[in-house]
Specification:
By secondary structure, the chain is an alpha/beta fold. It has one domain: Rossmann fold, CATH 3.40.50.300. Helix content is 28%, strand content 18%. Helix 3 runs parallel beside helix 4.
């Protein structure tokens, strides 16, 4: 759901590290308020604070994989970066070696339907805001014990959102 605080929370998470990069699919508010990261050379990644990159193509992730370490990487709307060639993409390589890179990756999506199915095998935590869709639409990708917890939390957050539009709840995947 729009306006429930997802982007604000993601920005907060980005600021918990001395360096973060927020990648967005199109020019938006983040791109307006944060300094740009060119995402080409090692020097482009020599900064502190939070920078923004309006995604251009796979070369952005090639550069991120080479040069962004010990940071938070926020990817707004993961559908924009995951295509049919995901298994051979630089983004998949980044996700797989993220621990080695000391990289925390945050995917921001409006609901379960907006998360590409291939990403569910990499999820370690969910932060749930008020969403329109149900976790069960991804029941083929979410383990049953986690799905049950997610369904319960979605109901709780929806109830809380009646009085607090920024209601959210965290769940760690065991």
């Amino acid at each position: 759901m729009r306006g429930c605080g997802k982007s604000t929370y993601a920005e907060h998470l980005a600021h918990t590290n001395p360096r973060a990069l927020m990648v967005v699919p199109t020019w938006d508010d983040w791109a307006d308020k944060l300094p740009e990261c060119k995402c080409r050379t090692r020097k482009d990644f020599e900064y502190t604070g939070v920078r923004c990159r309006v995604y251009e193509n796979e070369n952005d992730f090639v550069a991120i994989g080479k040069h962004l370490h010990d940071a938070v990487l926020v990817l707004d709307d993961p559908r924009a970066y995951i295509g049919s060639n995901f298994d051979h993409s630089a983004l998949k390589k980044i996700i797989i070696v993220s621990r080695k890179m000391m990289l925390d990756i945050v995917f921001v999506a409006h609901g379960f339907r907006d998360i590409p199915p291939v990403l569910f095998s990499f999820v370690t935590d969910y932060v749930l805001f008020n969403v329109f869709d149900e976790p069960k639409i991804r029941k083929d990708r979410i383990p049953p014990n986690i799905l049950e917890k997610l369904e319960k939390i979605v109901t709780e957050v929806r109830q809380q959102a009646k009085t607090n539009p920024y209601a959210k709840k965290h769940i760690a995947v065991e």
